[in-house]
Design brief:
Helix content: 25-40%
Strand content: 15-25%
Number of strands: 8
Radius of gyration: 18 Å
Shape: globular
Strand order of the largest sheet: 5-2-1-6-7-8
Number of helices: 8
Protein name: WbqC family protein
Amino acid sequence: MNVAIMQPYFFPWIGYFQLIYQSDVFVLYDDANFIKQGYINRNSILVDGQAQRFTLPVPSASSFRRIGELTFSVHVEKISRTLEQSYRKAPYFTDVMPLVEKALWNRDRDITTCCQVAIDGVSGYLGLEQKIVRSSSLTYDRNENAENKVIGICKALEGDRYVNSTGGRHLYSAKAFAEHGITLRFLQAKNTAYSQGAHDFVPYLSMIDVLMHCEPEQVRQALKNFSYVD
């Protein structure tokens, strides 16, 4: 069983969703500390042909607090307005904007909840079935080092393969995982080019941009555009 683990991100780039797509169980790592200036609460969209950052405010944000302890601000009017102005002429705006708004304005402002609403919205729109769990709901030793925490989560889920993005290759040892009967693999995500209207293609944007410009079947195919590396 494939297990993947990532901090909850709000509509991240397609590589994050490729990791979800290949997982039997995807763990939202809400036990991790919040990363200021990271991608938990921000990403980029297309505005007038250029990448522009959007950020959801996190009151009392601190790198000394767990993600599961924090919430998104209720003040998201500016972001909502920017998204509408930027994508109202996109071919799939009518279908996609409601699922974005549902996550953006979710009544429960818990970061993990809002991010899961976004992930569930994308999965439902694309006709995918994904199993998502929170690390905070699992029993494992939270006092261990980072590698052993991941191993503990995999064991709690009875997973026999852990798949991480290639950005984590320096963090983990295949030998350490093998000692617990777990195969360690790394996913090399690929960003498939697609039409963004009259503009030259701008890669690595939020999944929002992908959904706004691509029909669901095109997105489903793009989710398969990855490879495994050692």
